[in-house]
Every structure is written in structure tokens, then in C-alpha cells.
Design goal:
By secondary structure, the protein is α+β, with helices and mostly antiparallel strands. The chain has five domains: about 5-70, Helix Hairpins; about 80-325, DNA ligase/mRNA capping enzyme (D-amino Acid Aminotransferase, Chain A, domain 1, 2-Layer Sandwich), CATH 3.30.470; about 330-430, OB fold (Dihydrolipoamide Acetyltransferase, E2P); about 440-590, 5' to 3' exonuclease, C-terminal subdomain (DNA polymerase, domain 1, Orthogonal Bundle); about 605-675, Rossmann fold (3-Layer(aba) Sandwich), CATH 3.40.50.10190.
């Protein structure tokens, strides 16, 4: 929860922020709900709305009749016949974390105590929140007569002809009942993949996502187009019925199934809020694996008598709430841009952000990559920005909400002198990045040491940045090899180290003295040489001795190693200082020779991408096993990728695999393939 950071400290600041939020939300609401278009994602729009509600809650006297918090959705399109709903169409309020859900639970119980005059323990029903388009179906004597969109909650659009093209919508019910039923029209991910292949083949731009395409399809004037696009629907509510409604939401879902409606099978009755939260957590992980988009869980009080006692606010039911999954896109304020010097001397601008929760974690920093990226985004200090973090992808600023500008924002100018460089910076020829002219600054040394001991390098347990800082500040280490000459006595001289912790650190250093060839090359922080390039070099040469004597031509001959990387490698190993460092290091450690690239392994010619968390091994271990069988590892998914290995919480790479039609395998299948 980042409520305090979100809420302005003064009423005047709140008034100004609310004015910008209302104007911006209304603009994007019109695009999204009326024109079926979008400039920002639904997650980002939700984030703006959530901030607005939090500020209005803190300053209730600033709520205005035209605030987006006081309305339901969009107006109907003029191209369709208008339909007045017989039952008002409400929208649920949103919750974004467990704390907000516990507050909802407390509100429900307190209100029931007030209304019923006694303490009761309601149960809850959890239903998956499908990201599609709401549809309202009216039946008379069991026959479908009208289908309409939600519209503004009072008046919607008549889409009966289009709904009849959806096979899962019954034209007649199993019983001759009259009533109004609500559900969600959606498009399968697999259908989107099929349609996009057709679009690309025809030379047209592919569709962005299933939700937008489903909404656009429902508003097609030609029903034949709707039929061809294979929409689907889940029905979740009987809002009116010519007989007594069931006593619980669970019974209502069973009734809908009995009448012939398609109901999402993954609903659950929960006795406590802890069970609700557990259901939500489970589906956060499972959601990407379904063939339809799920953006949260709808939680309703199960007992109808309690629902009726709770009633409605002016815009939403009190008995239910939409428990949204952590957004992959949110909005926040960029408070500053700070330059960070990396281990190779490259200077990276880093955005310092107002802390915000995105994809399940609180983020206060995001890279802006380089000067050109700042210019492309047009970002300024003080801007409201859209932050993205999909699955296991690092936080990234994807756009600026320019409508939120007040005129107080400041442009960022790349300085000519950077303190951590101990001097000036220069733009790297042919690149967008700047680097330190002085390649031996203390800041760079620190970063190189951090990387050297990290999991990507020697993986020395208990030797994180704070320990490295202490060792450097005490001048106990100056070069990488000094780490392996440390004694318990040396460590005891550092703050916060006792006998046991000092011994543990020395033991961890000793344990790390043997390292694979690829990881060793990675740990050296050679410019332009990342993890995968290092493994390619290890595959090509087999031993560190051969690499030490290799020429530019030898490096350049390796597949995937271009001239820039080859020159960087040749220059590094030719440098006298580096040669001496290697000589001293090899006295202290053992670099495992690399078996020459396997030509007949079962994975030869196959490329793997790993995503999510594996339970049986680390990603690095999985990569080594793939390479040992002749396979290749890639970090991004492309059409030529052979397998995507999906662990828990797989993230965006899973969805991208579906888009490209790449085979996705679970951890259990992956383990079988390794045997």
C-alpha cells in the first residue's frame, strides 16, 4: 500500500492533482468505452482512477458531481439502437491488495451488524474476473429477445444480432423463464493468434489484444464478421427473474448452468477472507495459462439476504468488490533522474519514482536506458508516467501522461561531468550511451566487484554489496584476486562481523574457488560481453588458456560475436594489467574446462526460453542442463524459439509464446526431457 505517497499533503495540491486526474481519466474513458480505442492500457487507467478515489477519500469536500468516481462507464455508440435497461447495470469497486480486502470484509460485517441488529459471519463467492465486454441478456418465456451492452448503466446498445452469432449463448433456455442475465463476452487467446496470422498474411497490422478485439467485434454492423471471429461468453448473474431468486450466489450459478448458460467453472465458496485471498493468490499464478484473459477475482457476499441488506451505493454494490491482480502497468510520478555508473563505465539515467506497487512488488526505481530514450519518451522530471513490469521483466517506463502536466516539470540535460566517473563523460561512437572517460573510477570498481561475487559470477554466499563496500572502504581488497587471500582475522576487523560470521564468509569464498568457464568470463566484466556471449566463447575455445592467446580474428570468427565484441575481447586480454590479474586469479581458483559444443546431443538445434520460477532447480542450473545437451538459451521469445519452459508465475514470455505459437512446456515435462 502506497497511500501516503499518493495523497497530497495540502488541500491546494490535492485540488490541482484531482483536476488533472479528472480531465485525463475522462479523455481516456471516452477513448476506451465509446470509441473502442486506447492510448494507455486498462491497468494504467485503473491506476489513475484508484489514485483519484484515494485522494477524494482523504479530501471528501473536493468531490465534484462530474468526477469519474461518480459515474459507471461510457455512453452508447450512435450507430446502434439504444436499449434502456430494466435493471440498472452497476460496476464493482476495485481492491488491489489483501489489506483493502480485509477492510472490505470489516465494512461488510459492520454494516450487516447495523442493518440486522446482530453479528453475522457472511461467506463469500469468488469468481474469475474475465477481461472482456459486459453483455446483458433479456429472455421472455425462455427465448432470447434482447442483448445489449452495459453502456452508461442505464442505456446500452442493442447487439442482439451479434450475440446470436455466439454459439455459447442459448437462443432458448432449458426452462420457460423470463429474466435478465449478465455476463462477459470474450475472445480466446488462441483465436486472437489465428486472426493475427491472417492479418499479417494479408499485409495488415495485427490486433493488439483479445479484449479490444472482442469489444470491437460486438460493435460490427455485419454479423457475419462476428460469427467468423468465434467469440465466447460466460454468464455470471441473474439480475431479474420471474420467480424467487436462489438464496445464495453459489445456488444462482448452479441455476444458470441448469438453464443452459455457460458459466466459468472456476468459482469457489469461501468461509473466510483468508480463503478469498488464497484463491486470489492461486489464480494470479494460474491466470496466464488459461485461454482467456483474467484480470482479477470478483468477490461477492454469498447470502442473498445479506446482499439485500447491504444494498448499493450511488454507483456500486456494497456486497461485492473486484479484487484486481497486481497491475502490469500503473501510473506514478517521476520525481528525479539520477545517473548511475555501471561496471563497464556506461552511465545510465535512472528514474526515481514515487513508490508504487506493480505486478506484486513495490517499485521506486526504473531505468531510462540512455539519452535517446529520454528524448523518445519526452519525459521530464515531475511527469506522471506509465510504468510497466510484466512478469519477470524489470520495471520500465513506457509512456508519459502528458495531459497531467502542470508546467512545473523540468527537462533533463545530460551533464558533461559525472562525480562517480571522477571526471567527464563521452558518448560512445555509434551508440546511444555515455561512458566515463576515466575507466578506473572507484564507482566502477565497486560495481565490478558486486557483479564478480553475484550469482551471475562466483556466487559467493553472504558476500553482497554491503560486504564488498566494507572490504573496499577498509582497503582489504583492491583487485578480484584479493578476495581469495582474505583471512578470518581480516573479516573480523570489519564492522558487524563476529567469529562465526567471519568463518562462514571465508568458507563461502573457499567454496567458490571452482567456477565454470562461462561464468568466469561473465564475472570479469569485459565490455559488451554478457552471459550468453560468454557461454558462446566458452563453447568455442573450451579452456581459458586458449582464450588468453586468442586474436581479434579468432574472436570474430565465432558465430554471434561481431566486430565490436571481438575487439573488446582482444583488447581486454592483450592488456598487461588484465593479463597480470588473470595470472594471479588462476593461482587462487580453478576454471573448469568447457566441453566442446555437443554436436549430437538431444537438444542440438533447439532453442529454449525460461520464464517463471522453477521448483526443482535454479534458472542457471536449468540453462547449464540445456547447454549440456547441445541446446541454446535465449532471453526473448521469437517465432523460431522451440520451447518456452514455464515455471510458477511465468509472466509475459508465456503470453508471447502463445502469440507466436511456440510450444510451452511445464516443469514436469522439462524434467522428463532432460533424462
Amino acid at each position: 500500500m502506497q497511500r501516503q505517497e499518493t495523497i497530497p499533503k495540502t488541500k491546494q495540491e490535492a485540488r490541482e492533482r484531482l483536476a488533472s486526474l479528472r480531465k485525463t481519466i475522462e479523455h481516456h474513458r471516452y477513448l476506451y468505452h465509446v470509441l473502442d480505442s486506447s492510448e494507455i492500457s486498462p491497468d494504467a487507467l485503473d491506476a489513475l482512477k484508484h489514485e483519484l478515489v484515494l485522494i477524494e477519500t482523504a479530501y471528501p469536500d473536493l468531490v465534484t458531481p462530474d468526477s469519474p468516481s461518480q459515474r459507471v462507464a461510457g455512453a452508447p455508440l450512435k450507430g446502434f439502437k439504444k436499449v434502456r435497461h430494466t435493471v440498472p447495470q452497476w460496476s464493482f469497486n476495485d481492491a488491489f491488495d489483501a489489506e483493502e480486502m480485509r477492510e472490505f470484509d470489516e465494512r461488510v460485517k459492520n454494516m450487516l451488524l447495523k442493518e440486522l441488529g446482530k453479528k453475522v459471519e457472511p461467506t463469500y463467492v469468488c469468481e474469475l474476473k474475465i477481461d472482456g465486454l459486459k453483455v446483458v441478456l433479456s429472455y421472455e418465456n425462455g427465448m432470447l429477445v434482447t442483448a445489449a451492452t452495459r453502456g452508461d448503466g442505464t442505456v446500452g446498445e442493442d447487439v442482439t444480432a451479434n450475440v446470436k452469432m455466439i454459439e455459447s449463448v442459448p437462443l432458448s433456455l432449458a426452462e420457460k423463464v423470463s429474466g435478465v442475465f449478465e455476463g462477459e463476452v470474450w475472445m480466446a487467446k488462441s483465436t486472437l493468434l489465428r486472426l493475427n496470422k491472417e492479418e499479417v498474411k494479408a499485409g495488415r497490422e495485427p490486433f493488439a489484444n483479445p479484449r479490444n478485439l472482442a469489444a470491437g467485434t460486438m460493435r460490427q454492423l455485419d454479423s457475419a464478421v462476428v460469427k467468423a471471429r468465434s467469440l465466447d461468453v460466460f454468464i455470471y448473474d441473474a439480475s431479474a427473474l420471474d420467480r424467487e431468486l436462489p438464496k445464495t450466489q453459489t445456488e444462482e450459478l448452479k441455476l444458470l448452468q441448469d438453464l443452459g448458460f455457460k458459466v466459468n467453472k472456476y468459482f469457489a465458496e469461501c468461509k473466510t477472507m483468508d480463503e478469498v485471498i488464497a484463491f486470489w493468490q492461486k489464480w494470479q499464478k494460474r491466470a496466464p495459462k488459461e485461454d482467456y484473459w483474467i484480470d482479477g477475482v470478483v468477490v461477492k457476499v454469498n447470502e442473498r439476504a445479506y446482499q439485500e441488506a447491504l444494498g448499493y451505493t450511488g454507483k456500486a454494490p456494497r456486497f461485492g468488490i473486484a479484487f484486481k491482480f497486481p497491475a502490469e502497468q500503473v501510473t506514478t510520478v517521476l520525481e528525479d533522474i539520477v545517473l548511475q555508473v555501471g561496471r563497464t563505465g556506461v552511465v545510465t539515467p535512472v528514474a526515481h519514482l514515487r513508490p508504487v506497487s506493480v505486478a506484486g512488488s513495490v517499485v521506486s526505481r526504473a531505468t531510462l536506458h540512455n539519452e535517446d530514450e529520454i528524448a523518445r519518451l519526452g519525459v521530464r522530471i515531475g511527469d506522471t508516467v506509465i510504468l510497466q513490469k510484466a512478469g519477470d521483466v524489470i520495471p520500465d517506463i513506457v509512456a508519459v501522461v502528458k495531459e497531467m502536466r502542470t508546467g512545473k516539470e523540468k527537462e533533463f540535460v545530460f551533464p558533461k561531468f559525472v562525480e562517480d566517473c571522477d571526471g567527464p563523460v563521452e558518448r560512445i561512437p555509434g551508440q546511444s550511451a555515455y561512458r566515463c572517460v576515466n575507466r578506473n573510477s572507484f564507482a566502477q570498481k565497486r560495481r565490478k566487484f558486486y557483479y564478480f561475487v553475484s550469482k551471475k559470477g562466483f556466487d559467493i554466499d553472504g558476500c553482497g554489496p554491503k560486504v564488498i563496500d566494507a572490504l573496499l572502504d577498509a582497503e582489504l581488497v583492491g583487485n578480484f584476486d584479493d578476495l581469495f587471500t582474505l583471512t578470518v582475522g581480516d573479516i573480523l576487523s570489519l564492522p558487524r562481523f563476529a567469529e562465526l560470521s567471519a568463518k562462514n564468509l571465508i568458507e563461502a569464498i573457499d567454496k567458490a574457488r571452482t567456477i565454470s568457464f562461462g561464468k568466469f568470463l561473465t564475472a570479469l566484466s569485459i565490455e559488451h560481453v554478457g552471459e550468453e556471449t560468454a557461454h558462446d566463447i566458452a563453447d568455442a575455445f573450451g579452456t581459458i588458456e586458449k582464450v588468453r592467446t586468442a586474436s581479434f580474428e579468432d574472436f570474430n570468427a565465432i558465430y554471434g560475436v561481431g566486430e565490436v565484441v571481438a575487439r573488446s575481447l582482444a583488447d581486454w586480454f592483450a592488456d598487461a594489467h588484465h593479463s597480470a590479474l588473470l595470472q594471479r586469479l588462476l593461482v587462487q581458483i580453478r576454471v573448469e574446462n568447457r566441453k566442446l559444443k555437443i554436436e549430437n546431443g538431444k537438444f542440438v538445434g533447439k532453442t529454449f526460453v525460461l520464464t517463471g520460477t522453477l521448483s526443482s532447480m535454479s534458472r542457471d542450473e536449468a540453462k547449464e542442463k540445456v547447454r549440456a545437451l547441445g541446446g541454446e538459451i535465449a532471453e526473448s521469445v521469437y517465432s523460431k524459439t522451440n520451447f518456452v519452459v514455464a515455471g510458477e508465475n511465468p509472466g509475459s514470455k508465456y503470453d508471447k509464446a502463445k502469440t507466436f505459437g511456440v510450444r510451452v512446456i511445464e516443469e514436469a515435462e522439462f524434467l522428463k526431457m532432460l533424462k
